[in-house]
Write a structure and sequence with these properties.
The structure is a single chain. The chain is α+β, with helices and mostly antiparallel strands. The chain folds into two domains: 36-188, 2-Layer Sandwich (Muramoyl-pentapeptide Carboxypeptidase, domain 2), CATH 3.30.1380; 193-305, Immunoglobulin-like, CATH 2.60.40. The chain contains seven helices and 18 strands. A hairpin with an 8-residue loop joins strand 12 (229-234) and strand 13 (243-246). The protein is globular.
Length: 313
């Protein structure tokens, strides 16, 4: 009995410590690597190793600036970086398929003018290409078959993934979809009239009372407006709104005019301080639509509300 008692006490203390331990903090995105990458852009011969996270889990602003430089992205003009969601997903898949190797970039950011130029020469470039929104790249990994890379990302249904037959794939943080060369549809009129627009949030995880930035991508026209309130729905439940949030840009207007790509990517609101933990989607409604076939509304990617998310920056 004297021998058993110390072991019983040790077990009890260990059990209590385990059951009362706080749930570990989660990153800002559902799919993300550790943020350490070696990137090389073969279009401009820019290359660097970056570490996208600070010790506290916030974003490393200096290294995001380096990524923008590699991608040829005009940070000051745009007022934002290349999509963090895209970069962390890219790192996640690179870590699993080719850990420690360079991520080779064949196409990164494209200005609307450059995108139209390559379209005019017959290349695979969609009129509403996500490259123009700073949320896409074409890349390859040394020693990894392009079809395997495509299938691996496709299985996660986490963005747009295309394969044209060689070692390179297109990957973007836009609407989840997939295609191969025969089904790419880059010359199809289907995306016209804003029919394939996509609404995304700047992060996947938020704390209550945090600011959320919403951005629209894959737009063929910016000549329309958005309603001044944003509805919050439980993820997957689109019928009943839980609460309506005010759009910061409303300024008393019943229809907030966009008019440009930059404005369409900076729509902000604040989450309620008493919102419960769980997964939600945000609904944005449109007004003064220029096309009859343009959607009347859009739901964002799912977001998760937690109280233990790392700081934003």
């Amino acid at each position: 009995m004297h021998f058993f008692f110390p072991f019983f006490v040790a077990f009890l203390l260990s059990f209590c410590a385990t059951t009362t331990q706080a749930e570990p903090s989660q990153g800002r995105f559902f799919i993300m690597g550790n943020g350490v990458m070696q990137l090389k852009n073969h279009r401009n011969n820019r290359e660097a190793k970056v570490s996208l996270l600070n010790v506290d889990g916030s974003l490393n602003e200096a290294d995001f600036n380096t990524v923008d430089w590699i991608f040829g992205y005009p940070t000051r003009e745009k007022g934002e970086h290349i999509s963090p969601r895209l970069l962390f997903m890219l790192d996640y898949f690179a870590e699993r398929l080719a850990p420690g190797t360079t991520i080779h970039i064949e196409s990164a950011y494209r200005s609307p003018e450059y995108n139209e130029k390559i379209r005019s020469t017959g290349n695979n470039a969609a009129r509403t290409s996500t490259h123009m929104d700073g949320i896409a790249l074409d890349f390859w990994l040394e020693g990894v078959d392009g079809k395997k890379l495509w299938e691996t990302i496709k299985a996660h249904n986490c963005g747009g993934i295309g394969h044209y037959g060689d070692k390179t794939v297109h990957f973007d943080a836009g609407r989840p979809r997939f295609w191969e060369a025969a089904t790419s549809g880059t010359r199809s009129p289907e995306p016209d009239e804003n029919r394939h627009l996509y609404l995304s949030t700047d992060y996947d995880r938020y704390a209550p009372a945090e600011k959320v930035r919403l951005a629209l991508s894959s737009l063929s026209s910016f000549e329309f407006g958005v309603r001044p309130t944003i509805e919050v729905h439980r993820s997957g439940s689109r019928q009943q709104s839980l609460v309506a949030l005010d759009l910061d840009q409303a300024n008393g207007s019943s229809c907030v005019w966009l008019g440009s790509r930059k404005v369409s990517r900076f729509l902000t609101t604040t989450l309620p301080p008493d919102i419960g933990s769980g997964r939600y989607q945000l609904k944005l409604s449109f007004c003064n639509r220029p096309f009859a076939r343009m959607p009347e509304e859009a739901f964002s990617n799912p977001i998760e509300i937690r109280r233990d998310v790392p700081p934003k920056n």
